[in-house]
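subagent[fold] <- orchestrator: predict structure for attached chain, return tokens only, no commentary.
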Amino acid sequence: MTEFDVVVIGGGLAGHCAALEAAERGASVLLVEKCAEVGGSTVLSGGCMAFADTPLQRQLGIHDSPAMLLEDLRAVGGLNVQIDLHEAYADGQRDLFSWLTSHGLQFSEIEQSAGQSVARSHATDPGLMIATLNEKARAYPDVEIRTNATGVKLLRAGDELPVTGVTIEESGSLYDVTAKGGVVLTTGGFTRSEDFMQKFAPKQHRTLRVGGAGNFGDGLRMAWKLGADFKDMGQIKGTFGAHAEFCNNGQELLLIFYRGAIIVNQAAKRFVDESLSYKLIGDAALAQGGDRTWQIFDDRIFREAVGAARLFDPVPALNRKLLHKAASLDMLAEQCGLDASQLRETVSRYNQDAMAGKDHEFGRDGLCHHAGKLVPIDSPPYYAYPSAVALVATYCGLAVDAKANVIDVYEEPIEGLYAAGEVMGGFHGEAYMTGTSLGKAALFGRVAGREAAMRAKRN
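subagent[fold] -> orchestrator:
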């Protein structure tokens, strides 16, 4: 079949949500994925999604609201983010939560993490999420999913005319597919493209390069040829907290600094407010000059984090021998190749500030985003996690509006072309709220699928 109502390019979370939403609205859908398996960067993520005012939060006594979520998004993203995207997310995220749970997805722990004034990171298994949505989409007779198939060129009859389809490469052959309602780009970022990295993020050359195996910027390149505008390209930042030696494609990520750990450089000195977004911490870590820093914490912090969501629980790292553990700070420093006297001094100074409730050195006023009480690091044994900065996702890309239309350099929508997920820009801005990468992928994936399906009916 070479004609569909909606064609989706990319098989991660945004692509599956677009395909399923379009199918639920009666559209015929083709979803193509360039890799042998679907999932993209989604299955490499920590599995957190940012929701506000959910039944799970209320059950746990967590007071949150769309207004608080919107305020946090604006505070973290800075002045140049698109407010219409933030408002669309804040308005639609509760319905998204209900939609996902209605399809059998389950959320367990709720954590407070980067950019959140309250705990709103709802944890789920990202691999299971993709598998569930894939199964739901395949259940529709008019949905076709092709792997090892790559979108290479967008089709339209002429300049300023609507996008009518896409050229696909499969098994060495090219063929055209017509999309009556439109093409939805959910192709992810470009962490695997040295060309794009040199163009847009040369300062990130020392980051560990991870992310989806197919993330070479295909969607960006196709839309760029049609005059699409870009957003946030100058804001690309790596993620702090990846294991410095065994990153495992971004899987070995620990954010226990949001539970009270401090971060030191190879000189055994703190260099950043640990409650900031891990994107900003990543920039500060790269500025230290070396490729390794350390998260330092004690047994009290360790025990209180046991059983937390995947990004915060230190037990898996300990079991895989990724943590350094010692009975004293001096012994820990020796294991890590740090100066023992300097590490003692750093921890002692921080402990004095923590007990006084005020970090005089870097202004840390909470464990995460101004919330949580500082805790001294004084209960042996002590732990150290060797940390690096990993570029798991690029968090920038095509300019879109709140209906997921791709916008060109003249601020006009490119009719028939939509984008969602990591390939879209304008949402994150200067930093990043944990859970909004998957959150925006799912929400705007649904928006794109809905809009394309509605356009197909009109046509």
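orchestrator: received. Logging for downstream: The first strand starts at residue 3 and ends at 9. The chain has 13 helices and 19 strands.
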